[in-house]
Specification:
This protein is mainly alpha-helical. 82% of the residues lie in helices and 0% in strands. The protein has 13 helices and no strands. Helix 1 runs parallel beside helix 7, helix 1 packs across helix 11 and helix 4 packs antiparallel against helix 10. The radius of gyration is 18 Å and the shape is globular. It starts with 6 loop residues before the first helix and ends with a helix. Pfam families: ABC-3. Belongs to the ABC-3 integral membrane protein family. It is a multi-pass membrane protein. Keywords: Membrane, Transmembrane, Transmembrane helix, Transport.
Length: 257
């Protein structure tokens, strides 16, 4: 379980857990679960574009992740955020289906991004994950107070000197970065569970934001460690255990609230 070939997997799991725990806390607090579901799924056209163009999958994921953030933010300012998120998700998935139909090559990279492949994380990819994770965590911690105020109400945040629209864009960008970190490990289809499950349980632990955030990270770390260990022992995908564990954490959090 701790052989040399597993070291990258454990390091990737650590990065994913910390990033998802921090960003996921505000996803739950701000009611942004739909965006946290849509943006990871929006990596699909990025992977399809990478296969078609013969470029690194991370480049395609980053490009379409940014496009998704801009679309959700711009459309959400003129209407209901959930409608903007739904429209953006539909456009991204449709684009991905079109791009994938243009290539006749086996899209192993697309499969890995949809379902995760923790043993396929290279040292170079690990460095990129660390940078993206650090960026997401730094953005959220830098905006800790404005994001908390915005969760209560945009008018209150504006009255206290924060700029709700600007911080909303920054928060969406942090979700996209967190998705870019988690998708290679647990897959686009199950990243949502890792962001929402531990954070929901952590929020039930304490009403104090700092304590709840720390609990969210601790639960995400335990969940990710357990998922990797069970994957090693059973040869089942990490995403399977991460998704089931995330759902269990959410159910526990709801029971405690």
């Amino acid at each position: 379980m701790f052989s040399a070939f597993m070291l990258n997997a454990w390091a990737a799991g650590l990065i994913v857990a910390v990033t998802a725990g921090v960003v996921g806390f505000f996803v739950v607090l701000r009611g942004a679960s739909f965006a946290a579901h849509a943006l990871p799924l929006g990596t699909f056209p990025g992977a399809a574009a990478a296969v078609l163009l013969g470029i690194a999958p991370s480049a395609g994921v980053a490009g379409f992740g940014l496009a998704g953030v801009v679309a959700i933010w711009a459309l959400g300012r003129r209407g209901r955020p959930e409608v903007a998120t739904a429209l953006t998700l539909v456009m991204l998935l449709a684009t991905g289906a079109l791009l994938l139909s243009w290539t006749d090559r086996y899209a192993a990279q697309v499969y890995a991004l949809l379902f995760g492949q923790v043993l396929g994380v290279s040292r170079a990819a690990l460095d990129g994950m660390a940078l993206a994770g650090a960026g997401a965590v730094a953005a959220v911690l830098a905006g800790f107070r404005p994001l908390l105020l915005g969760a209560i109400g945009a008018d209150l945040a504006a009255a206290r000197g924060a700029r709700p629209a600007l911080w909303e864009f920054g928060f969406l960008a942090a979700i996209a970065l967190a998705a870019a970190v988690a998708v290679p490990v647990v897959g686009a289809l199950l990243t949502f569970a890792l962001m929402v499950g531990p954070a929901s349980c952590g929020r039930a632990v304490s009403a104090r934001p700092g304590v709840a955030l720390a609990a969210s990270v601790a639960i995400a770390l335990a969940l990710m460690a357990g998922a990797i260990a069970l994957s090693y022992l059973t040869n089942w995908p990490v995403g399977c255990f991460a998704g089931l564990g995330g759902a269990g954490c959410y159910a526990l959090g709801r029971a405690l609230l």
